[in-house]
From TrEMBL:
Signal peptide: 1-22
Residue ranges constituting the Sulfatase N-terminal domain according to the UniProt record: 28-355
SUPFAM superfamilies: Alkaline phosphatase-like
Keyword Cell wall biogenesis/degradation belongs to the record: no
Superkingdom classification of source: Bacteria
Similarity comment text for this entry: Belongs to the sulfatase family.
Pfam family, any one: Sulfatase
Gene Ontology MF: a single term: transferase activity
Source organism of the structure: Tichowtungia aerotolerans
Protein name per the record: Sulfatase-like hydrolase/transferase
Classification lineage: Bacteria, Pseudomonadati, Kiritimatiellota, Tichowtungiia, Tichowtungiales
Keywords of this entry: Hydrolase, Signal, Transferase
Amino acid sequence: MMRKLLFYLALAAALSFVCAVAAESEPPNIIVILADDLGYGDIGAYGCRDIETPNIDKLAETGIQLTSGYVSAPYCGPSRAGLMTGRYQQRHGFRHNPAIQEGGSPLGLDVEEETLGDVMTRAGYRTAAYGKWHLGGSECFHPNNRGFYEFYGFLGGGHCFFPEQYADKMREWANPPDRPVTDLYMYGTPLEINGIDLPPQKGYLTDLLTTQAIAFMKGFRHRRLFMYVSYNAPHVPLEAPEEYLEKYSHIQDHKRRTYAAMVDNLDWNVGRIVSALDELGKRENTLIVFLSDNGGPEKNGADNGLLRGEKGTTFEGGVRVPFIWNWPAGLVKDRTLDVPVSSLDLLPTFAALGGTEPAGKPLDGVNVLPWLRGTASGTPHERLFWDRDGQCGMREGDFKLVRMKNKPWMLFNVIEDIGEETDLSASMPEKVKTMSMVYNNWLNPMPPARWTDPQQ
């Protein structure tokens, strides 16, 4: 009897091991959750103390939390262009936000560039994108024509959070003659699904996007899924459900209170996605990557923690973001990783996981799985570069070179001085000279911007 019991226990253990290996070797479902204008210090796992983010914190605690996670640009559209292609957006002229996203506009992500949607479709995934696109409003730039089977959201750079009320907002905003047309278009457009405008939707936009994403997961539960969930929270307009505003009524600053409420709701919706994966039996073999598109804008209530600068700058506060990888079947848990990883790395890493090769132009991103798994030494990137209209930045090892427009170069050791408080340029002139030459050699061959900044 005892022999039989031991035999069955050994058999169960062996089957469990085989199943675990099979789950890890099978390509995972992949979900990118992109927050909009979320500051480095606005998540509990990154030191926030006045906003509750238990679901995002749990992703960090049970996954890999990057403390040197970067995006390729300090704001909006250009950052998304880098993430979507795995290439510095300067290489294809996407240096500014597209202007008003009207049909027929030539402003958008170059159609010669391969996207995450293209790569994952070729790898056999059913693909979907939700929320903010901001990569072009014409048909040729539409997500459905850039590799995404389903799209639910809006094409511009922002949207009101209570779509049912958007018609009233349009009438209200149309009255002041000095109201910028970009505001009228961006925040008041109808939501759409696969190119079809929808009637005003009842509810809060972050909730609506999540509901649609979960419906997609359930509808294609037997398919391998790639989902790009691009929330526009906590980007302006600062709007939150009343119950969340009441929760943070103790915060005196009105902007910070509303911003906190938006982040809390965003966190709740992240939890909804994780719960849906659990219900569908997909959680173990699903990779979730959570990050922000750029640093937080302090004027709108964001907090970048110890970092200097904010959205729009090439200081750390503009380009270093919360960045979490969580894949129960494929990555170790509760690990902090401090090597520089970029949003440019998503495409080549996902391609490797899906068993395919990018078919487009040479990439700037790299497959970071060896570093995430602790099997590689050194860093994925010898250097990372940033440029925004004369604002420059380059990280090389421990050092970061920064220049504001028409100002001298500054040099910081961002390992010892994460807040970029001590400028070392005067004491290390040769380092500045060498690094600035490398930077100029990177930037100078880049093609010009394909359009001008609509805000200039």
